[in-house]
Amino acid sequence: MAQRAFWKGYLKLSLVTCRVSMTPAVTESSKLRFHNINRQTGNRVVNRYIDAQTGEPVDDEDQVKGYARGEDDYVLIEDEELDDVALESTRTIDIESFVPQNSIGWIWYDSPHFLAPADKVSEEAFAVIREAMRKTDTGGIARLVLYRREHSVLLVPRENGMIVWTLRYGDEVRDADPFFGQAGEESSPARARTMMKKLVQARMRNWSPKLVQDPVEERLHEIIAMRSKKSKRSKPRAAPEPASKDNVIDIMEALRRSLASEKKGGARK
Questions:
Q1: What does the alpha-carbon distance between residue 262 and residue 269 come to, in Å, rounded to a whole number?
Q2: Domain of residue 149, CATH code
């Protein structure tokens, strides 16, 4: 079943315009969701906003955004004012410039979205823009309002469509140099590097989504299934042995044992 578009608008490059639809590329709909329950009654516990001073509940229509400029002093901003801040980019992705795709570090990428032509009439114009970026190995930079906030976005070709990445702002990414500077500049022995390379190669696998499955989620499903059948409570897993408090590590001995373990595992397979 095709994914339902959560955004529809226009893709524009100079005088070339086409209708497009977009949907998030990732989802958390399969994640388990828990409710807070009153243990005594078995009823759900609900959250309510209350006035910090009076303790009285506040209805939705009486709630407004506020920016703190001092103690108990707020600048109030209405929802309509937030919607009006960047109206020009709410329904049009206007590509302003292009950059080499490999020039943007992964740390600037935020959330991915699938972009496709919204109808048959728009397919040709969409394909022209997409293939131009593919042949030049570039991505398009634009601005777009999503989730009630204006974002800088990067458009890159992907199969018959495009990926629209929201990008983090400059003040959201910290400078890594002060942190990594604490790691030191000590170089490793050549023999240790060779042994580590063999260890990496022994664990090399082809990429598969199965490599990043959530074991906690799977275990929770098992527990819920057992509880639903009114089975006896399963025994908790034994706690792992605590790590040694000795911080001095014999790296060569650790590598020898790791490689030996990998060879035994390979033989068993």
A1: 11
A2: 2.40.290.10
